[in-house]
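Quick one, T. Sequence first:
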Amino acid sequence: MPLNVTLVSAEAELWTGEASLVVAKTVEGEIGFMAGHEPVLAILASGQVRITGADGAKVVADASDGFISVEEDVVTIFAGHATLVA
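Structure tokens:
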């Protein structure tokens, strides 16, 4: 079962879709999420968010000033500033 992921900045929704893996930098270190992960609410640190889509495609964004929420295979990344880089 894939993760349902949404990546948004203050300006726009940057990416939404199904993913097998999400890796993000938080103030406590880098953390990865796969289906079945326990609920998490973490402060997003400046750095990359890397998403591996359910089809294997890679999405990379530079993000800062926000938080990441994980609950019931739904990952939502809210960033004050974010841009897609790949």
